[in-house]
Amino acid sequence: MSVSPQHRESEGDTEVAAEQRYLTVLYRHLDAERELATRRLHETLSQTGGTPQARTERDVATTTFSDRLAQLNSVEQGLCFGRLDFHDDPAGEETAYIGRLGLFDTEDDYRPLLVDWRAPVARPFYLATAASPDGVRRRRHIRSLSRRVTAVDDEILDLREADQGQDLGLAGEAALLAALERRRTGEMSDIVATIQAEQDGIIRASLPGVLVVQGGPGTGKTAVALHRAAYLLYTHRRQLTTRGVLVVGPNDTFLRYIGQVLPSLGETGVLLATVGELYPGVRANGLELPRPAEVKGRIAMVEVLADAVRDRQRVPEPVVEIEVEREILRLDRKTCTEARTRARRSRRPHNQARRLFVDDVLDALTRQTARRLGEDLLDPRDLDDIRAELAADENVAAALHELWPLIGPERLLGELLSDESLLRTAAGVRFTEPELAGLLRDPRAPFTPADVPLLDELAELLGEDDTESRAEAVRREREERAYAEGVLDVMEQDEEIIDEEVLRVGDVLDAELLAERQQRRSDLTAAQRAARDRTWTFGHVIVDEAQELSEMDWRLLMRRCPSRSMTLVGDVAQTGAEGGASSWAGALGPYVADRWRLRELTVNYRTPAEIMELAGQALAEVDPALDAPTSVRSTGLAPVQRDLAMAALPTVLREVAAAEVGAVGGGTVAVVCPQGMCRELRGTLADATTRSEAGEPNPAVLDVAGVKGLEFDSVVLVAPGEIVDGSPRGWNDLYVALTRATQRLTVLHTGPRPPALSGPGDRPGQDGSAAASR
Ligand SMILES: Nc1ncnc2c1ncn2[C@@H]1O[C@H](COP(=O)(O)OP(=O)(O)OP(=O)(O)O)[C@@H](O)[C@H]1O
């Protein structure tokens, strides 16, 4: 059907008005649900007293209503974004509206008003095509701002109508392009309205097993990973809310950048963390150079740490003398070696095996003392007393501490990295001299993120010294039981005035059970509990920028997920960490052999074609066999490259940054530079720096590691030559830096251009004069 522009406009207006009416109804239901949840929450909170069971039930209800309210609040923006019209649907439901959560008409037999995007019914919204319409006649994207419909975009999924001029490109192309053109705020948005078919397949892939998602820059890996978390929580709610889902990202800035996506999808129970945050009780905020971090990430550290622990299990050379009550007792090498062998053979962790060692040594000292006192005069009770006295003796304790100390991971690692002789003994010939020297540090230095997997490894090797925590657990249990007994007493007294025949509370509920209920009442989410517990194992683990993980990082993460239900997203062409992965098979082989699935993403939604052409030249330097993803859009703006003298950089950068901030009209700008230049350039731009909507500095001055995974409307790349020369993975780094912009890219060369960046059309100049135009 051909329509005149005026006709089309009025037809569009009618459709917008119709959808507005429907949207208004949906918001009315949303408001009603909110009111209901608020009312129930208030009612629950205002109740006091009652039986312990009633209190428990109230706590559960409070959590349920608060969660529901948070979910209802989170879907306010873009509540409904799609509509499917089906051909003769046998169920008689010819239309389905798709949105951020499910809403039902409670007064009309729970008729679905809005279908959750994760429900199977919604799937054709993402998958149907004209060639394979899956019963769908028309897919409509509904765009809205606040509660107002701003546009509708239709696709008729019918090849005959398509022949009549319908555009059958990407699913919801107009809505997709509108989303991609939006200026960036510094916080990632969800893509729930415009998920593409290849992404949908990954989001809804089955839960078990290791799924690797490989894709070039801007292909939506992060977006897909987060939507997969939301999908899995919806589909496997019971299983995953108990064990929790962990999402691992490369650094804090990145976690802040993605932090709003899951809440905007109504999911709050996910733990977002860097590997450096996965050791409760340690804030690993020390800085470290890439080289020592790489050495710490090597798998050889497993043996170094095991040797460092063994090094703490000593025997006397040849004898140690202990003064007890003015007598000298002797511990010889043979006795201690036998005790050590027995303790080591137990294969228990160091702190737990210590009990065996201590037992044997105390036995030997008891025998010695008994011999001295005259064995024939002593009965077993006397021997027990002697042993107990020896165990309590300070000098014996000191000798035992020398031979087999109780030691925690933090102390052992701190001492190992700050004591050259301990480090040399443990490292053996595994590292070169410069590598060893790089590992040594000041004893007061804070832990770094690369230390965390080492602490975790040590925690496994050392085991908890659980003497204290067991005593504490027993004490707590006693207290809880005493409290529960008190509660039961009070309740039974109350009941005495009631009929004797009535079942008493104590008949159905004993103190132990009541105490246990009290514990289960804890209203922390699984994610919150997991964050405090090193030994927590998650129901599913998602890792973003997974190519950056070191071998030691992988060991830690695998420990957190023994079920190996994992989604790992990344791009081996973007690996910047020296100890990061060059291939997925290499990284995963030790844990799952070849039992992992690979899915690829091929379309770049971020970087315009013009910028990708330049980035492709850097990618060819990484590996000529790699293909850059295809850009979904072009802007008509070629990147600008300028050559200038280093001395001119401050002036030129100030000019360029100001111009770019103006050009993106409130959007985000990043200056990306070699690590060593960041501080100086921040100073250069200090006067002109404001804050983005997300509260980040704008322009942000960041090195490549700092922009990994992020995107900006405009990027000013400084000294790419130095970035290439600055690391063994310099070309990977340059590729990352070149692919951060959603609209505009300016490259400022302060030295010779890397050959791959000089292409046709450039006019290299000198000293800061404009060299190439857009
Ligand atoms: N289907 C989609 N609809 C709308 N926007 C999308 C879609 N897929 C991806 N995007 C957008 O494209 C941009 C890049 O996505 P994302 O950051 O997830 O890519 P990535 O593959 O993780 O990139 P990198 O490897 O560079 O970190 C984001 O702004 C994201 O919101």
Question: Which structural traits does this protein have?
Answer:
774 residues; alpha/beta; Rossmann fold; six-stranded mixed β-sheet; six-stranded parallel β-sheet; 32 helices; 23 strands; globular; disordered N terminus; disordered C terminus; binds adenosine-5'-triphosphate; ATP-binding; DNA binding; helicase
Domain module tally: 4
Radius of gyration: 33 Å
Give unreliable regions as ranges: 1-7, 163-169, 494-508, 516-522, 763-774
Helix content: 40-55%
How much strand content do the residues show? 5-15%
Major sheet: 6 strands, mixed
| Count of separate DSSP helical elements | 32
Shape: globular
Q: List the strand order in the largest sheet.
A: 3-4-2-1-5-6
How many beta-strand elements?
A: 23
Q: Could you give the distance between the termini?
A: 40 Å
The pLDDT mean sits at 86
Bound molecules: adenosine-5'-triphosphate
What class, by secondary structure content?
A: alpha/beta
In short, what is this structure?
This protein is an alpha/beta fold and 774 residues long.
Q: Overview of this structure, please?
A:
This protein has four domains: 10-182, no CATH class; 199-279 and 534-600, P-loop containing nucleotide triphosphate hydrolases (Rossmann fold, 3-Layer(aba) Sandwich); 290-459, no CATH class; 609-757, P-loop containing nucleotide triphosphate hydrolases (Rossmann fold). The protein is built from 32 helices and 23 strands. The chain has a six-stranded mixed sheet. A six-stranded parallel sheet has the order 9-8-12-13-7-14, with helices on both faces. Helix 25 (551-560) links the parallel strand 12 and strand 13 (566-570). Helix 6 crosses helix 7 (221-235), helix 12 (300-310) crosses helix 20 and helix 21 crosses helix 23 (511-520). The chain is globular, with a radius of gyration of 33 Å. The protein starts with a helix and ends in a 25-residue tail after the last strand. Residues 1-7, 163-169, 494-508, 516-522 and 763-774 have low confidence and may be disordered. Residues 176, 179-180, 189, 191, 194-196, 199, 215, 217-223, 571, 574, 605-606, 709, 711, 739 line the site of adenosine-5'-triphosphate.
